[in-house]
Every structure is written in structure tokens, then in C-alpha cells.
Amino acid sequence: MFVTVSDEKLNEVKSLIPRLQEISGVEIHYDDKNKFFEIDPKTQNSYEALKVVSVIKALGLGFSIDDALRLMSDEYQLDVIDLKISLGSNPDLIRRVKGRIIGEAGKAKRIIQEYTSVIISIYDHYVAMIGTYDQLSIARKAIDMLIEGREHNTVYKYLDKAEEELVRYFSKNRLNNIK
Question: Which residues are in the PNO1 second type I KH domain (predicted)?
Fold first, then answer.
């Protein structure tokens, strides 16, 4: 498996390689000539190698080392939205939509993170999220709504409703497990 990161993130990723190898049991090599990391599962489960790929991608997308390492857990996933795919390559449109996702003084991003417990990084033309499956699906929909041009208040109402549904769902399941 191969993964690349920007030159500015290269040293950060390289510094984490020994720790990642120890945690995962996979071999990680950097090819200086072609500028990519090769992840070899050796005799380990390929799933561990996929987790390492996700950690390296997350670092390349602007997440901190601690946040990226959450991806070594089975509970967390990385979800990435490429705004160039959604919007085309118009830099003004991408900048405007990134501004909508961040919100005034970071308000929209902060609210989405607080409601969903998802960690969001907006880097270059990517919006990346780390969280559990349920959390990611809600955060992804909220961000998609902002990309589509929905009002911030509409998105906040959606988050309110989604949070209530999740609480109700988990409360119901907890009661069913007790019986």
C-alpha cells in the first residue's frame, strides 16, 4: 500500500514512523525518489496496514498526531470531502464554501464538532473528519448541507434533531440490553 503527503508534512510523518510500526506491527518505508510511503503488513492483518494508511493521510490533511492516532482504534474512521470534486476547480468558489464551513470566527465548524464529537480539519481543498461511524454520518450531512448552500440555522436545526435521535436510539438500546 502506498500513500503520499505534502512536503510540508513529510518530517512530521517521518517522525511518527517508529511509533506507528510499534503500534501496528507493519513495516513502513519512505521512498525518497518517488516521494511516497510504502506500508507493508508483513505477516500482520492487512487491516492494521489500512489503519496506518489512514493515520498518514490524516496527518497530511492537517490533523495533529494525537488526533490522527485515534484512527488506530477500530471505532474511529477518516472521512474526506474533496471540494474540487464537489465544486470544480474555481478557487473563489472553494474559498467561499470553506468560509461557510468554518463560519464566522469558526462558529459553524465548532458547532458541528460539538454536536457530533467529530474532529474536523480544513486543509487546502479538503474537508477531513475523524470520528465514529454514527458521528461521521451526521457531520458529513451537515457539511454537505453547507456546501449545497443551505442556511447555517437550517444546518444547526438538523444537528439538534440528529442529536436527539441519537440520544433516543442509544437510550433505547441500553434499555434493551438490560432486559
Answer: 78-163
Strand order in the sheet with 126-131: 77-82, 126-131, 119-123
100 lies in the same domain as 167: yes
- State the average pLDDT over residues 88-117: 97
- The three cell numbers of residue 105 are 470566527
Structural domain including 39 reads 2-72
CATH code, domain carrying 25 = 3.30.1370.10
- Assign 40 to helix, strand or coil: strand
Amino acid at 17: I
**54 vs 3: CA distance, rounded Å:** 9
Residue 59 shares a structural domain with residue 89: no
What pLDDT, on the 0 to 100 scale, is given for residue 171?
Answer: 77
Whether 93 and 152 map to the same domain: the answer is: yes
Give the pLDDT band (50/70/90) at residue 78. very high
Residue 178's φ and ψ, nearest 5 degrees, are: -75, -35
